[in-house]
Amino acid sequence: MRKNIFKKDNLNPFFLNDIQPQGGISFKDRVIVKGDGYETCIYVYFYPGQVNEFWLNSLTSLSSLDNAIITIDVGTEDKQKALESINKSLIEQESRYYEDKDKISQIKAKNTYGALHTLADNVTNQGEAIKLIQVRFYISDKEKDSLENKVKDIMQELEGIGFRGTVCLNELEYDWQSLYYGPIEQKKFKNKRKGKAVPASSLAGGYPFHFTSLNDPTGILLGQTFTGGNVIFDLFTKTDIRKFYNAVLFGTMGVGKSTTLKKLLLNNAIIGNIVRLLDITGEFKPLITLLGGRIISLDGTGEIINPLQILSTMIDEETFEVLNKESFMMHMSKMSMMYNYIAINPEVEEVREFDKLLSKFYNHFGIEIEKATEYESKEYPIMSDLLKFAKEEMYVDVKKEEIRKNLTIDKQRRLENIILNLESIVRDYGALFDGHSTITDITNEQIISFQLRNLSQYDKRIFRTQIFNILTLLWNNALKIGTKEKKSFDNGLKTLEDIMHYLIIIDEAHTIINSENIMAVDYLITCEREFRKYFGGLLYATQSIRDMVPETIDSTSEVFGKIKTLFELTQYKFIMQQDSNAMASLRKIFEGQLSESEIKSIPNLGMGQCILSINGMSNIKFKVLATEEEKKLFAGGA
What we know:
By secondary structure, the protein is α/β, with parallel strands linked by helices. The protein contains 23 helices and 21 strands.
């Protein structure tokens, strides 16, 4: 009896029982109902007129795809039918060109005619074949609502890259069978579809199995590309294309920005690089503690940096000796900028008066320019000393506040303003600024985090002043370490792989880099340009690009130009999910670095998904990977 069953239609019923949809299957108008969930099929019906190489890869690696099956059915159009179709189109375009009075329509018709003419010539003389392709996405889920959300996400992402898809109503049974039948058999279906006609060369150029990867020799695994390639990344890799080490990271809340940033920090710590972190939120504290790093609070409850201490910020590039005179001038420039923060948009004359007063003060205090950076920290004056000196310049008798008679009214007004600002700093924020530096030599410390959570709650002018203070300290620190490393490299004692690099990470960077804080932008641009010489780099991280570049900023303004320059000096752009209302800012800032389809795909990026744009290289879409151990280590930053 069994033999008769097997012989009938050459079918094996036992095998069919094993492979059939378990629990049964029912085809509805828009969804396939199965015993274990729901399924549907999206049919791609519209294709863009122009595509890039590996264009099919953009379809097969959509970021919103999750446990999906993608099929690409390819058939061949009859050569004679193809030529007849091309001929009809040529006649139509020629007619439009001569009969349409609209000039734009005429241009379009002319361009289309030219493309068709070239195609006809290739088919006739070059052996070009016309292929018919049909692309389908099969999506499944346990719940119907979740399935509909997946359909919506895929359709939106398809539209973002120039394609359009649809669920063909009441045709799902045929679409489902298309999984098991080729294009020839599909022609027998009642809903037979011809498919999109494309030249064979265009289809070949769309090769969907183009695997992208990044494999830096000194890198550590950061993630995996959408095509399955590894992203083994080292921020400090140097090639003929990758010549500097600055980066920026964008990612809205909950998409993995913090995890990515912590992974980059951890990777650099493992490699042995120097890491300095400006932690605005305080969430890095457990990781820094675990890595044995030092945590410094500069909110008045911990350490203090004396703004009047002159640090070595200029070094002779040939002898590597500290240039005291140049460092003093740089310090004077820094103090001038700090006064601008404290006074809030003072008049130019007032700032010049402050510069003059400060220069006179250092001379009065016995600080010699020729050895300006060589004094011990306690030998430098502090802010209360400067306030006392300013008052003595203003008054004959300080206690009675008797004003000197030789002062002009304008000078008197300028000195009054300077004294008021200095009094505010000494009286209200003395714990932050009025004292000798308590931060001793940090050259030998690998990891330091500056905790700024409390400081960020202060008045903006105080917060910005202290940030500027920290950045100056770090520039001095980077110069000391970088000079030593550069000397070893130049003398052949170290290779690039042996060099200890210096990384400054600024989290929540929008609190520092924004249109209201142009002085900080200028300073960071200078740091970006100079750090490369000393094997250093900066990494900025923030949630939205709009926090740094609001849409209200005129793209022709000086402020916009400077912020754009700051981003242009970043070799690496890590772009995670952004709101759709940030697209305009992304286009303006990253013009020429991100394609339109990539920009449109950004709002649809999922958890941990990222576009890495590297100057001079192809952009890489990948997902940041974190082990279970790393997730525990990064607790709170997922």
